[in-house]
């Protein structure tokens, strides 16, 4: 069939904006902007060969926190409220029992508490019936205790908060001054 | 005086050119297309995150694997009861599935970045720690040691001290 040659009409781009808007609204609606946030933790490696290690840590260098199935706290063999935990942990960490910690402010230097922050270990044990909410609160308080001490030291030495330090060496220095050691034992099933 | 100004404004009133509107919209569109992360799973378990103050952002989303723990939602209550369950990807899973799942997820990541893989535990606040502890043990066995307890930010520490 013979066809007439016609001039190709120009495509109307007027509706382009509408199409783009439609797509834009779709992506706006489906997008999830909420950044995932949480408490970062590191688990100990699983090693069934070596279940119990020789425990060279002295009793006084361990800060024990127990949570029972009624979400009650036992801190260093005393009942405690969650609101006291942060202060108690901080007192323990900067106790400075052997006097080797020259940056520990207001250390109580109690012979029954930790020698220095480098040796201090926080031991956390929960029951199988403990609620996750309580567990997170306790974790939060313990992490906060370290954070407050690190921030204080960092402010004193560099005039900045710990999390705002950009220099790798300074960051390490503070980290080593207050090493975060929170050890978690296997959960008990004692009920109560 | 007034009349004079009116006259002037009447004279010059060019229409706003909308020719560049598609370009602007396209620019926005590309921005959202690039930044968007599609909701990857439908939650089959109820997850009401606990609150905390000492929270950190999860940096690399592509390196994060999620484990959901909580009671089945209403729609699944008949089938699965009210006992807290684990959800991996789109399905309910048992405890034994956690380890192979994490290992399989790790294998999909770039070899250099495998060490950086984080497992985010999104658990309901009323979950018992027995189940979470079991999940943690499975993660340890799978050598996935970097974990993150997913929480919502609390406005202040005092908010956390309120009794139940």
Summarize this entry quickly.
Chain A has 192 residues and is α/β, with parallel strands linked by helices.
Structural class of chain B: alpha/beta
Kindly report the oligomeric state of this protein: heterodimer
If helices are DSSP runs of H or I spanning 4 or more residues, what is the number of helices of chain B? Answer: 6
The strand order across the widest sheet of chain B is: 5-4-3-6-7
Order of helices and strands of chain B: HHEEEHEEHEHEEH
Largest interface: A-B, 50 and 59 residues
- What is the mean pLDDT of chain A? 81
What is the strand tally of chain B? 8
Cα radius of gyration of chain A in angstroms? 28 Å
Distance between the termini of chain A: 94 Å
Q: Distance between the terminal alpha carbons of chain B, to the nearest Å?
A: 73 Å
Estimate percent helicity of chain B: 25-40%
Report the sheet-strand fraction of chain A. Answer: 5-15%
pLDDT under 50 segments of chain B (min length 5)? none
Fraction of residues in helix of chain A: 25-40%
Textual characterization of the structure:
- The complex is a heterodimer of chains A (192) and B (164).
- Chain A has 192 residues and is α/β, with parallel strands linked by helices.
- Helices cover 33% and strands 14% of the residues of chain A.
- Chain A has four helices and six strands; from the N terminus they run H-E-E-E-E-H-E-H-H-E.
- A five-stranded mixed beta sheet of chain A has the order 4-3-2-5-6, with helices on one face.
- In chain A, helix 3 packs across helix 4.
- The model of chain A has no long low-confidence stretch (mean pLDDT 81).
- Chain B has 164 residues and is α/β, with parallel strands linked by helices.
- In chain B, helix 4 crosses helix 5.
- Chain B is elongated and about 80 Å long.
- The mean pLDDT of chain B is 82.
- At the A-B interface, helix 1, strand 1, helix 2 and helix 3 of A face helix 2, strand 1, strand 2, strand 6 and helix 5 of B.
């Amino acid at each position: 069939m013979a066809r007439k040659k016609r001039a190709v009409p120009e495509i109307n781009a007027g509706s382009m904006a509408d199409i783009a808007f439609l797509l834009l609204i779709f992506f706006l609606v489906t997008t999830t902007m909420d950044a995932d946030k949480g408490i970062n933790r590191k688990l100990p490696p699983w090693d069934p060969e070596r279940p119990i290690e020789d425990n060279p840590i002295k009793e006084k260098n361990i800060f024990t926190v127990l949570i029972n199935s009624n979400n009650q706290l036992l801190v260093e063999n005393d009942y405690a409220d969650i609101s006291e935990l942060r202060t108690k942990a901080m007192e323990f960490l900067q106790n400075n029992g052997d006097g080797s910690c020259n940056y520990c402010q207001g250390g109580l230097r109690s012979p029954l508490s930790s020698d220095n922050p480098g040796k201090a270990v926080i031991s956390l044990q929960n029951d199988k019936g403990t609620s996750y909410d309580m567990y997170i609160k306790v974790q939060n308080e313990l992490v906060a205790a370290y954070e407050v001490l690190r921030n204080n030291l960092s402010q004193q030495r560099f005039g900045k908060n710990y999390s705002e330090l950009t220099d790798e060496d300074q960051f390490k220095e503070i980290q080593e001054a207050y090493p975060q050691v929170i050890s978690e034992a296997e959960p008990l099933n004692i009920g109560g | 005086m007034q009349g004079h100004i009116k006259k002037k404004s009447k004279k010059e009133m060019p229409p706003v050119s909308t020719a560049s509107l598609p370009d602007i919209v396209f620019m926005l569109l590309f921005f959202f297309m690039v930044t968007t992360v599609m909701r990857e799973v439908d939650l089959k378990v109820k997850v009401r995150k606990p609150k905390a103050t000492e929270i950190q952002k999860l940096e690399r989303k592509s390196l994060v694997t999620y484990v959901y723990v909580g009671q089945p939602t209403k729609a699944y209550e008949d089938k699965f009861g009210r006992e807290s369950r684990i959800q991996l990807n789109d399905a309910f899973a048992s405890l034994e599935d956690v380890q192979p799942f994490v290992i399989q997820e790790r294998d999909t990541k770039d070899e250099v970045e495998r060490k950086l893989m984080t497992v985010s535990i999104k658990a309901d606040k009323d979950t018992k720690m027995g189940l979470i502890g079991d999940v943690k043990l499975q993660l340890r066995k799978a050598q996935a040691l970097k974990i993150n307890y997913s929480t919502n930010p609390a406005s202040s520490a005092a908010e956390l001290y309120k009794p139940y």
